[in-house]
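TODO from last week: model Tyrosine recombinase XerC.
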Amino acid sequence: MDPASEAVVDEYLTLLVVAADRSELTAIAYRSDLEAVATWLEARGSRLLDASPALLRSWVDAAGRERSPRGVQRAASALRGLFRYAQRVGARADDPMEGIHAPGTAVALPRALARDEVERLIESVGTADVAGARDRAILEVLYGSGVRVSELCGFTLDTIAQGRWVPVVGKRGRERLVPISAPARDALEQWVVRWRPQLAPKHRMLFVNLRGAPITRQGVWLVLKQRASRVGLGDRVSPHVLRHSLAVHMVEAGADLRVVQEILGHASLATTELYTKVSEGHVDAVYQRAHPRARAGSR
């Protein structure tokens, strides 16, 4: 492997173990995969860090004929992580692995709740006590804004003071504005004005646990699990599912995909386009209902 690529690989794998809490064995396996890819690329006149999307796609196709699906998936994961890190530190301007999937890796379509299920979940949470007011605000913001759970946990009192659209820093430091819906604003006002002061937190994080400490991602997951179980939704609800549900419902209502992309903070429109596939059933239902010759018995 060339020295420049090797230096970035070393930094990436160190970060993986130290900051991302991945195991040493994972780092060793990733290094082996990246070295194998680098050797393959060098035989074709390219350094690892300079690899084009076409060359990387060719490597994935070739590896699919020689390695197990699991091995190719692991190597592809190592490459994706490496190039995202390279982008972050300025060693590469683009992500050449974007849109490249290992053979046998199906792109999982997002799960979504039906609209009435979302309504049932949110409306089941009252605001007559501190836990209810907080949980209602969390649900309204997750579904109303489509933010990731990590983004939600990073909200401060200053965040929501900025009006109907608030700034969010998403993956890889990308900034965007997300909407705060009218129901979310009402729920936030109840939480912030009436109930949050009772916990007397010594910080300005928006959402806190019942001991006054900043709420964690695990804490948000627990809130959703408990609330969902009470309305018969079992383990179908998570922060990510609410985010997916917002996107699917917007697409079904005719929202422009680029608007949905901007709200969700997707780097690529191809990611957002998954929601058009999720909504194919809705499209078919509309077609059957609206087209004069689509219904059975039409002449």
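Done. The chain has two domains: 3-88, 115-283.
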